Amino acid sequence: MKKIALKVNGRRYQFIVDSERVLLDLLREDLHLIGAKQGCDRKGQCGACTVIVDGKAVRSCVSKVADLDGAEVWTVEGLGTPDNPHLIQEAFVLAGAIQCGYCTPGMIMATKALLEGSPDPNEGEIKKAFARNLCRCTGYKKIIEAVKLAGRFIRGEISPDEVRPDPRSRTIGVSHPRPSAMLKACGLAEFSADIQMQGALEIAVVRSSEHHARIQSIDTSQAEQMPGVVGVMTAKHIKGSNRIKLIFDDQPVLCSDKVRCLGDPIAVVVAESKAQAEAAAQAVKVGYDPLPVMMTPAEALADGALQIHDEYPNLCWAQPQIKGDAQKALAEAAAVVEADFSTQMNHQAPLEPEACVAYLEGEGEDALLVVIGRSIMIHSHMAMLQGALGWENIRYEEAYCGGQFGIKVAITSEAIAGAAALHFRRPVRYIPSLHESMLLTSKRHPFDMKVKLAADKDGKLTAFVNDFTINNGAYQILGIVVGLRALQMLSGSYNIPNVEAMARLVYTNDAAGGAARGAGPPQVAFALESAMDMLAKKLGLDPFEFRLKNILAPGQSVSTGAVIEEWPFQGLWEDLRPHYERARKEAAAFKNGPIRRGVGLACHSFGIAEPGDAAMVAVERDPDDGITIYAAAADPGEGNDSMLTQIAAHLLNLPLEKVRLCTRSTEHTTETGPAAGSRITYMVGGALLNAIEQMKAAMAEAGASGYEGLQKAGKPTRFIGKKSVAEGPLDPQTGLGSTFESQVHNIQMAELEVNTDTGEVKVIKMTTAVDPGVVIHPKNLEGQLEGGMDQGVGFALREIYVHGETKDWVTFKFPTMKTAFDMEVITPRETPRKNGPLGATGIGEMTMVSTAPAVTNAIEDACGVRIYDLPATPEKIKAALLKGK
Ligand code: FES
Ligand code: FES
Q1: Is the whole model's pTM more than 0.85, yes or no?
Q2: For a FRET experiment, which of 497, 541, 733, 810 has its CA 20 to 30 Å from that of 303?
């Protein structure tokens, strides 16, 4: 032990610490300064823990306190408060650089250190200073802008008041600061691991070391005797079904007889400290009887393959789609291309681990189980927990969530934390490591696709065939929905009269697939948009003109046969044309030498509000004539809080601060459905509109202008609004049926360079042209589109998740500021959507879908190499180049 003196945020402290104590723990646990976050396994990879020590930006997770005697430490809490923020905090809020906010405190502290040494840094200096500060949400563009804006504020060139929109100005189409942004900038927003609970126990989970095996024995006797251990629980201690059911009830909370995947949970150790729980988890002995491991659909579908789930065949779902007569059209076509495409398993990669806490309010059988976690669908997750744990009285609270991108459609750590709180009757914290979070979460499904695309002599598409197989991994989670979404958006933006598809979903022993930004369309769009370029080449047409020629028009039908009324897309192509011509001209100068430049296009029409979708919102007029919105609309970083606030303020002509949100607990809120599928603006915004229309009608009837008038007239002050879409399942024989109520359209253009010596790709610029409908918050819109492009480039070039091998942000190849590229968002048209709230629709997943094929099409344009299986790594490109020589 060693006594050391520290000054933290201007206050002097003395601590007696052991040689291993790191600064991050001291700040968070001893001083309750929760601004600094842990986003990697203390490997110095993420920068979320960045603080300033003696004027330098330091990663507190690797800084030993014993080495800091006499040091001066500043954390984000020491910079400013929401009432009196630092100029850097103001800059991050006003630049729209804060989405989920998990990286934000670290980014702000890195900015402070940079600007103190270099008051006016250029982009290169910023990129260098932030090389180890990761962000998954923003694509870094707005963070770089925030750093520059902070510099201008500090140099006195401009003040926050000159940048901040007037709160009394218009509420629609203006980037008012997000309701939670300043809280996040000041390090005060509580994420799950930030919640302090008196007497909370820590959890460690014993996970399967096998991919597929029968469990012969579980011996917890030694672990139970270890220091600090309160107990060990297994499946037999769970009172409910022990099954997590979203679509199928195939996933145990704790495995009892069989493990189907590496990392499957088997036992839960609960102890006074995390270290004690982890040590005891190591001492739990599990006996396995190994079973054949099937990591691919081919292995799982082979003759005699063992069934992974007793209740379901390995081929757990199949759905054809037959529109017209594709075979006849292929036979009659002027040109046909044919190829096999595949996409990789990928991780959604939220920066925050899958943390969750749980405790009981009250005693005995009537106690209320409170679960606080990262859910984006708290009502559904509460119902799933009720069934799995056999406990009715549950409240789910959504903490601030460090990104999710679909991962939180699935239950992750909540069932284990909830089960442990119920069994041990003590508050518990389950804070898995990053590696464990990777093991326990669902992933983006890999697709294998056999594709044919045909056109007539005029270059009009005539037929499309896509026979695809999805590796579902060990559990269903959302596999069928992903397959259906792929079919519903199979023909992308185009009019294709004849479509023939077959979708198959296959259980394997790989990580379970789940929702991941776009969920299905990114995979099939990669195949279609690659084939579009191949066919354009075969026909001797420019890819731009070929696409434009085939864009669907109102009155024509998508692959489900549904005739479309609204498809505002043609004009957007003309808006992009000058950008495309500029890019082509610039690329033409790089047709010799080892560095070749290419331009690639892809487009997509993303469906929002699927058949059967529904949302409900309650609004209440408050005594001060403000309103409170009660709706479980999660905001894991997209800006849903802004959307609800600004729509309500606009409709009722209220100042923004008079709109209150109650969205984060199953108590008091209505069910809105998940914050997924880009649906919240359209569906929940639509339900909000409906509720406020009822309120306004009641006020008009009463001749009232607010709360008092409603009360006096005996009118209700609370109104429930609904938005629903008619049911319309796809026909099981033909895959035909209705489609989404709304679409958002974009064209993606990639400009990149390929080093033909190494195969390395450098993205120069991504441009997206989008018709997003009426824009509510321009900076939130840009942030979603930019973040999607950054994730799309990662999906295209680098990212791949290998279960058990991908363990951290280095092995995952997380996008960094170093790999960030120029991005331009073009929104020249805001065509109001007929049924959207104020004409708005959703845009959260748009650019994720079309980015990867735009990138691979640009690679082909640059160097002639067509990539059929993602990601397009330097090794694959180099090998293809060598083969072509
Ligand atoms: S937690 Fe310190 S760098 Fe990731
Ligand atoms: S805002 Fe940076 S990780 Fe979410």
Answers
A1: yes
A2: 733
